Amino acid sequence: MNDEFLREDGRTYNTLRNMKLEVGVLNNADGSAYIECGNNKIIVGIYGPRELYSKKHSKPDAAVLRCKYNMAPFSVTERKRPGPDRRSTEISKLISEAIMPSIFLEKYPRASIDISIEVLEAEGGTRCLGIIGASLALADAEIPMKDLISACAVGKVDDHIVLDLNEKEDKEGQADMPVAIMPRTREITFLQMDGHLTGQEFDEALQLAFDGCEFIYQLQQQCLYNKYKGAK
Amino acid sequence: MVNILSQICEENIIDLLNQEKRIDERSFDDYRDITINTDYITKAEGSAMVSIGATTAVAGVKASLTTPFSNSPDEGIIITNTELLAIASRNFEYGPPNKFAVEISRVVDRTIREAPVIDFKDLSIVDDSTCWKLHIDIYILDFDGNIMDTACLAAVCALLTTKLPRVTTVNGEVNVDYDNMVSLPVKNRSVLCSIAKLYGQLLVDPSAVEESLMDTSISIAFREDGSICAMQKCGLDVLTIEEVKKSINIAFNKSRELFSILDKIK
Questions:
Q1: How far apart are CA B73 and CA B69, in angstroms?
Q2: What's A4's DSSP letter?
Q3: Taking a contact as any Cβ pair under 8 Å apart, which residues of chain B between 120 and 159 contact chain A?
Q4: Among A8, A124, A193, B201, which is most exposed with the fewest C-beta within 10 angstroms?
Q5: Which CA distances in Å does A204 have to A2, A28, A184, A187, A217?
Q6: What's the average model confidence in pLDDT over A133-155?
Q7: Touching check for A115 and chain B: CB below 8 Å?
């Protein structure tokens, strides 16, 4: 049944939007990544590991991971006031928790690793793209990790379970579930859901999310390979 | 902002300056490569990504309808804001715009307002009650000196490519036609050119290392007819009258180059 269903933008239930991944895009940052997916444009910069200015917040046995997700005022239809709000604060917290299990933070006691995710244009799915970009930028910063983190959203639109919701599907759909995983161990590091799903639909959606994440994982690896294939 | 520069690098720069050379082999009045990518943000009414060397800025114009200020009831409103993003440099921090960011916003604002790039009366829809408010947000993504010129060029390019929905008023009722986008009428284009004073020498388009050693700088904005529309000296050191006059001359010549770059957009 799902195979014949065409979405409003012409995609089938399991197609991602066109995705462009790039690493090493910034001059000063220790690691950086740029993502375009549909009309989404996201740039991620990493500084660190570096000495943590505030000793009060440093840990004697591990680095502190600090993550900021921020949307540009011109990234959305109605101008967004600059500065943090409740949504970006929550997303920042969740992204840092999604990334943390993959990093060997214990290698850098008393240090901090700062991740900034800047959304230049948003069209649905920015938190997942933020996670994908953050993980790529960490790899670009040569920070030791167990695995890359891959992420994508699934949801329910017109009673169909679909992959990678765009802005309209996100707003008008029946359910939205962003998922991030460590593909090698197939462990989930980030999971949110809102809307309406039955138990069976959830199982189907999660399977689709895993398939999507694994595909994106290959794109992430390819992106790093393209950048560093000549490196020693 | 703390900039750490090695002694040997500093001495190298000074040695080269004495031989009338710069560390990146430019002459004193050369800009680095300038790239402009307009209509970069689909959701903004106008936008541009501009790089001067490795310094990169994105400017986006967002328009909304509002009530005009009571002291200018027949004019629209333009608000310029600059954010120095934490990804751009290890010395930039999160938080509300600091004094450096505010200064950039205000200099860019004056360059646009005083030219004026667009006639503010064109932004008025119904006097005393409805006008366009344009938010020009400038995002500094990457830093290698001379944010001022990069930010200003990005803001002007974003304005030059801005399209607003056509607005009609019937019996005092305002109708906005989002299917019918029209370009903003441009009145006077303007560009900003900054000159840094370093060990007595005047340099165009200072890079980050040059800025960390510079004594003071002066930014001069020109209209297309060659008249000056805004100026700002910033930095701790002094400028002599001769230095200011010489800076204006250099900046005027460079402004011609910047206008010819602006001709290529659209």
A1: 6
A2: G
A3: 135, 137, 139, 141-144
A4: A8
A5: 11, 43, 21, 17, 20
A6: 96
A7: no
Q: B50-99, pLDDT tens digit by residue?
A: 999 999 999 999 999 999 999 999 999 999 999 999 999 998 988 889 99
Over the stretch A170-210, which tens digit does the pLDDT of each residue have?
Answer: 999 999 999 999 999 999 999 999 999 999 999 999 999 99
Residue B173 half-sphere exposure toward CB, CA atoms < 13 A: 4
| Residues of chain B with C-beta less than 8 angstroms from the C-beta of A32 | 87
Q: What is the CATH number of domain A2-228?
A: 3.30.230.70
Residue that has been written with the tokens 């046995």 in this structure: A61
Min Cα distance B87 → chain A (Å) is 5
Correct CATH for B10-263 of 3.10.105.10, 3.40.1180.10, 3.30.230.70, 3.40.50.150? 3.30.230.70
pLDDT grade, residue B171 (50/70/90)? Answer: confident
ipTM of this complex: 0.90
Instruction: Tell me the C-alpha to C-alpha distance, in Å, between residue B251 and each of A51, B191, B254.
Output: 41, 10, 5
Residue-range domain boundaries for chain B: 10-263
Bridge partner residues of B193 (DSSP): B220
Q: Best mutation site among B87, B150, B164 for testing chain A: the one with the most A CBs within 10 Å? A: B87
β-strands A160-163, A175-182: how paired? unpaired
Mean pLDDT in chain A? 94
Q: Residue B8: is it exposed, middle or buried by C-beta count within 10 angstroms (0-12/13-18/19+)?
A: exposed
Q: Which two tokens stand for residue A72?
A: 């540009």
